[in-house]
Every structure is written in C-alpha cells, then in structure tokens.
C-alpha cells in the first residue's frame, strides 16, 4: 500500500548535494591514520567501525580549522571545475591493469580532507599527497600550495573506447558516490546510508577514510573500502566495482548503531525531477522535460512489477511501498529520445538508471520515495531507499549486501511497461483524465481478452478504455477520475483472461 505524508516545511537534506554540503559544516577532523605499512582487511575495517561506535561521536569542527584542507575553500563553481588532476600522478599509472585512481583537491563545497590508502598484499600505505598533483589555473595557483590532502577520488577505466580512460566511479561528499553506463552522462547518485531522508533534521553519515585495493594486471574489478561515521552509527563498507556496458557495484556493509535507529535508508538514491509532459503548464522553459529520472521501478517479493511516475509536488511528501524480501527497486530514466527533452547540452536522454538488487533476504520493510518541491534543476529533490521494519538497536551489528546496476533498466521484457503518463482536466466538469501508454511483446497479439484493472482510493473512475497505437505492441489506457478529496491513490494494470500482462502503474494524485 502507498500512502503519503505531506509537509510544506520539507526536508533540507533532499536538496542538491551542493546545498547539502553547504548547509552542514563538513570539516570533520580525520580519524587517526594507520601507521606506514599497517595490516588491512575487511575484518580489520569492521573492527575499526565497531570500536569507533563505542566512542562518542566527534561533531564537525568549524570552517577554517587547521585540520581542514585550507587554501581553496572560497572557490566558485566555475573555478573549482577548472582545476585538473595531473594524470601522471594517477595511482596505478605504472600498471598494466586498465584501472586508474585520481583524486580531488579540498575546494569549493568540499573543503574537507580524507585519509586515502592503497592496499597491496594485505598491507595499507597512505597515498602520497603533493599539491603539485593539481593544475590550478589563475589567481588561485598560489593558494593551492597550501592544500593539505584529498577531498575525494575517482576511478578510471576505458568504458567507451579502448584507447581512452573514462570515469566509472566518484566518491565525494558525505557518503555520496555515483557511476554510469557506457555512452552515458552522470545523473543520479547513491549513498552509503540515508538517515531521516526527506524529513526535517536529516542526518548525513560521512565516509571518513578510504582504502583502494591495488588491482592485479588484467583485473576485471577494482575494490574500494570505506569507514563511515555519523552521530547515530558507524559503518564498514566494501565496494567491488565491475565495469562494462553497465557498471555494477557489489556492496557489503556492516553497520554498528550508537543509538536505536528507526529512520534508516538502505541503498539510498538521490535524483532530480523538475517537470515533464504530464505536468501541464511549467513556466517559461523551452524544453519538453527536465529530469535525471522519470520513475521508480520495483520488483516485489511476490514478483509484481510496479512503476511509479515521479512528480515535482507542490509540497514535500513521502510515499511508502510495503514489501517483504524485495527483489529489486531503483530510479529509472525511461524517456530515451533526445526529442523527449529538447536539450542538446544537458542530454537528459543519456542519464543512467540505477537498480538495486538485494543479495539475500531483507525481510519486511518498505521502499520509501521522497519527492520534494523545487523550482531548480540543480536540486536533487528525489530520493528512494529501503527502510527495514525492524529497528536497529544500539550496540547491535547489522550486515547488508546488495548489488547496484548503473546504466539501463533491469526489469524483464515480458510484461508490458509504462512508457508515458499524462493527466489533465477532463471534458466533463470536475473530472481528471489520465492516459497511460504501455508497450511490450505481450501486446503484440492484439487486445482480445485484454481488460483494465483499475483501483482508485480517494476517487471514483467514471469511464475507461483501451486504444491501440498505430505501432505494434503499444496501447493507451485512459480513464476519468472524479476525486472526492484533495488526494487519490491510483493503480492500473492490463490483464488478459484474468492474468496480469503489464506492470502495475501507481500514481498519487494531489489537488
């Protein structure tokens, strides 16, 4: 069941990553670094996280503290993105393995420095830092000499061409990281853990240290480890990253709560949705649509496929989709034609989808969708995550395992999918009209025996029909809604001879 809680105050944490970092002082003192050549393993990392959880949380220190990066904190957006890492300083540049690691300076919205280590043969050594690693143009070149470490990292691999290295992963800012598939542009992000996302007083765990395993020659994967800390918990994370047509992350995490936790968000994703064709009048904008993702896809524990179109609401809201042992969920970009957007620069048609595949049984809980009102495409106003039903108790240990697929959608091709949703005023006064276009091989044999299965909570459907499109295997399902209040939960699917042949379309309409 889906329901929504609406608050006009909203949740600060769901705005853009830049806004998040700017609103929170991020100059947290680095944890004591391992000595040169210290032993490292995932078990050792879990021990570090468990011991850290037994200590009081160290709150972020004020900006300008000597433990911050220094030198470049006042840069503008344009100035920051003119800084270049000099490729000859890349980690593993001397290796036959195609992976490289490069680093970001502490600047702009990322003034904080993190210890980063290379692991080889079970031994961790600090990655040497030198300000000369960075090409800082213009008047800030002198100030760059004062920077004291790295603010994040990126991994490179020949994703699109055999003779060119491309970014396949970035870790920077709180516990955020991102990736993409072949021939795509960056869009949505993931997080190590969300706490209270979409609600006031959201908490932002941060990765405090990173360890990069040195890949063997010819390796097909690269492994990143991270230590996470926050007021509520600590965590030990390991990411096994496998590039290809899509890039996959196998994530294992162990969480150690300091307090009882009830608002945790596992496998959290953040994205942006401003408007699309279903939203009607949208102000003075030349484009047809602006979004990094256009829907939430789910594969429930019972095998039901669900599609929930995203919206930019007039007030912030949370929607809950109860489930047990979900098989997958994720934010998806289904509109894939350039003409769907009309934007030759942003190329929203090339933004990746992100699919979460749980590894093991996650038990009871809910996929939670947070939609926040915004007027700016720079705001990440959408979040999705899994919230377990059972609270995490203080002093306990929570083990998590899942796989992230960055690139295309992961749902199967058997059932018909929703390709477009539109709504507007019906010709009859007081009614809303909805049209849902669906496409798939299950519709290739025509509409004999096909029926509409519609539910409306908070309203009454007054008419409905199914109309075939001129092209094969595509139909339009349409109906009229007579609302009885300010909100209606709607669902629709196609059946043939009583059996579903499409995914379930879910929609939360508000006046």
Name the descriptors.
2 domains, 11-stranded antiparallel β-sheet, 35 strands, Beta-galactosidase, Chain A, domain 5, 511 residues, single chain, mainly beta, Immunoglobulin-like
Describe what this molecule looks like in 3D.
The chain has two domains: 4-407, Beta-galactosidase, Chain A, domain 5; 417-510, Immunoglobulin-like. Strand 9 and strand 10 form a beta hairpin. The protein is globular and about 75 Å long. It starts with a strand and ends with a strand. Helices cover 5% and strands 43% of the residues. It has 511 residues and is mostly beta strands. It has a 16-stranded mixed sheet that branches.
What's this model, at a glance?
The protein has helices at residues 17-23, 42-53, 77-80; strands spanning 4-7, 38-39, 84-85, 100-104, 116-120, 123-126, 134-135, 152-161, 164-172, 176-178, 189-191, 194-195, 206-213, 222-229, 233-242, 247-257, 264-271, 273-275, 290-291, 295-299, 305-309, 316-324, 328-332, 353-358, 364-371, 382-388, 398-407, 417-425, 432-439, 450-457, 459-468, 474-483, 487-496, 499-500, 504-510. The protein has 511 residues and is mostly beta strands.
């Amino acid at each position: 069941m889906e329901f929504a809680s609406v608050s006009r105050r909203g949740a600060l944490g769901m705005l853009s990553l830049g806004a998040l970092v700017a609103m929170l002082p991020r100059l947290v003192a680095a944890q004591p670094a391992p000595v040169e050549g210290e032993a490292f393993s995932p078990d050792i990392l879990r021990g570090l996280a468990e011991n850290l959880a037994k200590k009081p949380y160290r709150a972020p220190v004020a900006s300008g503290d000597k433990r911050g990066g220094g030198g470049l904190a006042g840069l503008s957006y344009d100035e920051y993105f003119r800084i270049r890492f000099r490729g000859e300083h890349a980690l593993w540049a001397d290796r036959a393995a195609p992976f490289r690691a490069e680093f970001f300076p502490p600047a702009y919205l990322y003034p904080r420095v993190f210890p980063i280590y290379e692991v080889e043969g079970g031994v961790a050594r600090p990655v040497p830092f030198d300000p000369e690693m960075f090409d800082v143009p213009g008047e800030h070149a002198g100030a760059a000499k004062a920077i004291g470490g790295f603010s994040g990292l990126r991994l490179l691999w020949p994703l699109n061409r055999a003779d060119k290295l491309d970014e396949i992963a970035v870790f920077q800012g709180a516990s955020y990281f991102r990736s993409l598939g072949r021939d795509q542009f960056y869009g949505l992000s993931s997080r190590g853990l969300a706490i209270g996302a979409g609600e006031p007083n959201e908490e932002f765990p941060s990765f405090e240290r990173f360890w990069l395993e040195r890949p063997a020659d010819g390796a097909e994967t690269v492994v990143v480890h991270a230590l996470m800390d926050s007021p509520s918990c600590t965590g030990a994370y390991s990411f096994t990253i496998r590039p290809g047509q899509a890039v996959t992350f196998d994530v294992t995490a162990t969480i150690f709560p300091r307090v009882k936790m009830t608002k945790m968000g596992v496998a959290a994703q953040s994205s942006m949705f401003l408007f699309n064709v279903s939203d009607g009048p949208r102000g003075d904008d030349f484009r047809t649509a602006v979004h990094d993702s256009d829907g939430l896809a789910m594969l429930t524990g019972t095998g039901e496929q669900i599609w929930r179109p995203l919206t930019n609401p007039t007030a912030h809201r949370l929607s809950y989709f109860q489930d047990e042992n979900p098989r997958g969920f994720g934010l998806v970009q289904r509109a894939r034609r350039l003409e769907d957007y009309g934007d030759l620069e942003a190329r929203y048609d090339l933004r990746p989808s992100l699919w979460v595949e749980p590894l093991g049984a996650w038990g009871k809980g809910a996929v939670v969708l947070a939609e926040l009102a915004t007027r700016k495409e720079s705001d990440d106003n959408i979040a999705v995550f899994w919230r377990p039903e059972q609270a995490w108790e203080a002093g306990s240990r929570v083990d998590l395992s899942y796989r992230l697929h960055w690139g295309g959608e992961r749902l199967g091709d058997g059932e018909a999918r929703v390709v477009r949703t539109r709504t507007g005023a019906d010709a009859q006064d007081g009614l809303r009209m909805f049209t849902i276009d669906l496409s798939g091989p299950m519709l290739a044999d025509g509409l004999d025996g096909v029926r509409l299965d519609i539910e409306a909570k908070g309203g009454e459907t007054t008419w409905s029909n199914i109309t075939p499109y001129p092209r094969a295997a595509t139909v339009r399902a349409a109906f009229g809604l007579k609302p009885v209040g300010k909100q209606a939960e709607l669902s629709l699917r196609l059946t043939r001879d009583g059996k579903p042949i499409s995914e379930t379309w879910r929609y939360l309409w508000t006046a």
